[in-house]
TrEMBL record:
Gene name for this UniProt entry: trmD
Family: Belongs to the RNA methyltransferase TrmD family.
Name of protein: tRNA (guanine-N(1)-)-methyltransferase
Subunit structure: Homodimer.
Organism: Alcanivorax hongdengensis A-11-3
Keyword tRNA processing in annotation: yes
GO biological process: tRNA N1-guanine methylation
């Protein structure tokens, strides 16, 4: 029984940017299969002056322009009308970090309305009145909220039932299931030897238990090496005996 599509409405001055999701790869297939619906609403269509003005100079002076409340408010109301119950998110460096856990939580929402700002940002009164939460994809400043919105849509879409070929592949990801909060293990495919570099023999063994342990060891080890902060989070939740043993083995091999 096919479920209703997960509805996302992107409020943006550059609606063509949505094609990065609707026209390529897994998210394109999700749209074609009716699992994801991505609509755009352009605030410029809600202006009433001849010049279709969406921005104006900042009170208090300073560089750049600020997006005006009225066109945004009308655009957001139209977006919400077409996506009832959706959570309204503004992408900004002031937002809460986008994490896998946040993506999981957003995938469980009735739908999403994503507001992408431009210029120096939007009039604060719009945020107070219309926005449920702010989300950031990282501690850096971009020229617009569209790319962060597209990143968020991708992260959420691949969690929707039926979007990934093998549902379990979303679970096997790093950051989810047994590999929650861990970096990914290495991946290999044919040829078995490439320029003298052979694939780890365990992966050719067909011994699924050995393979699972090897992958978990690699994920733990790489996380220990590259992202000790993530490993700490995992440790705080308690490592199993097996995980502790595999990590100890990995660390020992590093110093040998
Ligand atoms: N790190 C981020 O998620 C992020 C979001 C939006 C943005 N720029 C936008 C915000 C208002 C005008 C441009 N920059 C960075």
């Amino acid at each position: 029984m096919s479920q209703a599509p997960f509805a996302v409405t992107l409020v943006t001055l550059f609606p063509d940017m949505a094609r990065a999701v609707t026209d390529f790869g897994v998210t394109r297939r999700a749209v074609e299969n009716g699992l994801l619906a991505l609509e755009t609403v352009n605030p410029r269509d809600f202006t009433e002056d001849r010049h279709r003005t969406v921005d104006d100079r900042p009170f208090g002076g300073g560089p750049g322009m600020v997006m005006k409340v009225a066109p945004l408010e009308k655009a957001l109301l139209a977006a919400r009308e077409g996506n009832p119950g959706a959570r309204v998110i503004y992408l900004s460096p002031q937002g809460q970090p986008l994490t896998q856990a946040k993506a999981v939580a957003l995938a469980a929402q009735p739908g999403l309305v994503l507001l992408a700002g431009r210029y120096e940002g939007v009039d604060e009164r719009l945020l107070d009145a219309q926005v449920d939460e702010q989300v950031s994809i990282g501690d850096y400043v971009l020229s617009g909220g569209e790319l962060p919105a597209l990143v968020l849509i991708d992260a959420v879409s691949r969690l929707l039932p039926g979007v990934l070929g093998h549902q379990d592949s979303a679970e096997q990801d790093s950051f989810s299931g047994e590999f929650e909060d861990l970096l990914d293990c290495p991946h290999y495919t044919r040829p078995e030897v490439y320029q003298g570099q052979a694939v780890p023999e365990v992966l050719l063994s067909g011994n699924h238990e050995r393979i699972r342990r090897w992958r978990l060891k690699q994920a733990l080890g790489r996380t220990w090496q590259q992202r000790p902060d993530l490993l700490e989070r995992r440790r705080a939740r308690g490592l199993s005996n097996e995980e502790q043993q595999l990590l100890d083995e990995y660390i020992a091999e590093q110093s040998s």
